[in-house]
Design goal:
Number of strands: 24
Radius of gyration: 40 Å
Shape: elongated
Largest sheet: 6 strands, mixed
Structural class: mainly beta
Helix content: 10-25%
CATH architecture of the largest domain: 6 Propeller
Mean pLDDT: 82
Strand content: 35-45%
Order of helices and strands: EEEEEEEEEEEEEEEEEEEEEEEEH
Number of helices: 1
CATH class of the largest domain: Mainly Beta
Number of domains: 2
CATH superfamily of the largest domain: Kelch-type beta propeller
Length: 286
């Protein structure tokens, strides 16, 4: 870490480690860290590098750092523990959030459903004369809930899976019609749906019909964007639109031959049946 520190706040956001505030600098007498700092240094484990960001406006030590919706909330500290300093990792900027109602230190913080719960621990009261041990610590069971800035908006650090799209129509085959149903399914709620036909993109709200298709080969893909801004694509569907083929001369001859054979067969059957009837009558006269 570029700046040696103790009692600093540490948070992980968007796969980077933020080290904020704490005690730095050495005392010439004790040789211990003693200077409160607002330095904000970020470690990227992918590139194994450190970057210096905007320092915390009010330097403090013993802070609690919690991440919600791409922002780091720093609560507590060595003095004025009601402060709520908010760091936006996207814009590298600081703001002040609503202060904690109860001025207490050494509390626990938990994030549940993007809300912060500040629980316990000590209410510290100082007498007029300050010094080591000259204060009164009172344990507390206070539990206060904090709703962060922009509550309910998607977390930009969320990297969910892209939507999976399955196209059931059209299929990879030849169609003898210029109007074909476009039917597909998506495995999660989405904010945008589109299909791309032969390089041209169209926005849709669901299943539809491809109308007025030209004869020839076509390529189709369906795209969908989730609420977390992840985009998925279907497989490429290749299909052909063609005119319905006319019967070939060979087919006509075969059909005609079959009809002729049927007629001849029926003629022979009628002849034999009639001849047999006549013979039966002749036998009766005799």
């Amino acid at each position: 870490m570029p700046t040696p520190r103790a009692f600093l706040a540490v948070a992980v956001c968007q796969n980077k480690i933020y080290c904020i505030g704490g005690l730095s600098g050495f005392s010439t007498i004790s040789g211990e860290l003693e200077q409160i700092t607002g330095v904000n240094e970020v470690y990227d484990p992918v590139t194994d590098t450190w970057t210096t960001k905007s320092p915390i406006p009010i330097p403090k030590t013993k802070l609690q750092a919690n991440v919600v919706n791409g922002k780091i909330y720093l609560l507590g500290g060595n003095a004025n523990a009601t402060l709520n300093q908010v760091y936006d990792t996207e814009s590298d900027s600081w703001t002040l959030g609503a202060g904690k109602p109860t001025d207490r230190i050494d509390f626990g913080v938990a994030v549940v459903n993007d809300k912060l719960y500040v629980i316990g621990d000590i209410v510290r009261r100082y007498p007029i004369t300050f010094g080591w041990g000259l204060y009164d610590d009172t344990p507390t069971a206070v539990n206060e809930q904090y709703t962060p800035i922009g509550y309910g908006t998607p977390d930009p650090s969320y990297n969910g899976a892209a939507p999976e799209i399955t196209v059931t129509s059209p299929e990879n085959k030849t169609y003898y019609t210029t109007d074909i149903a476009l039917n597909f399914t998506v495995d999660e709620p989405v904010s945008l749906m589109q299909y791309k036909l032969d390089g041209e993109t169209f926005e849709i709200s669901g299943n539809t019909t491809l109308t007025g298709l030209s004869y020839g080969l076509h390529n189709l893909t369906v795209h969908a964007t989730s609420a977390a801004d992840n985009t998925g694509s279907s497989e490429i569907i290749t299909f052909t639109v063609a005119e319905k083929p006319e019967p070939s001369p060979t087919t006509l001859v075969a059909v005609a031959s079959a009809v002729s054979a049927s007629v001849v067969g029926l003629g022979f059957l009628f002849y034999f049946k009639r001849s047999r009837t006549k013979n039966n009558r002749a036998d009766k006269v005799s």
